[in-house]
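Entry 14. Ran structure prediction on the chain below.
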Amino acid sequence: MNKKRCSWCGKDPVYIDYHDKEWGVPVYDDRKLFEFLILETFQAGLSWITILKKRNNFKKAFDNFDYKKIARYDERKFEELIKDAGIIRNKLKIRAAISNARAFIRVQEEFSSFSKYIWAFVNHKPIINHWKTLKEIPAKTELSDKISTDMKKRGFKFVGSTIIYAQMQATGMVNDHVTDCFRYSEV
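Output, structure tokens:
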């Protein structure tokens, strides 16, 4: 039986797997939240499928998304990453990943976890939207504007409102599956 899915995942097996198992599922684990933050940072200006297909390369290059290790990266490690053809070799994004790891740790120190900080913006429970079509889903919202502004004040880079909204969708802070998608009621 063919399941009805959000149309953005098309027929690509990588997209379908991501849609069916991850997208929109609430994430409260700091390490996983950091992984999505890194991936969304590198996605800026590119397609999400490009990032998904390189996800394992990013995982390897960035020490399994261990923000404590990434926060300690030095110039030697930066140069190593710039030469890694398996990831997106954008100097600004690589530097942002390193500085974001440091900002992430500062947020943890202030709020006891990044999860508590980020989920407080939605009262610690997902916003359930009721979109019937993909066209209705916004690229950003007033809330993603607010989170973006706050994160920038805390030293995060590449966290514009559109990236933050994509992060919110990916980590289940908002349920943006269309209402006739089989995952809508599951997440």
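The mean pLDDT is 96. Will compare against last week's run tomorrow.
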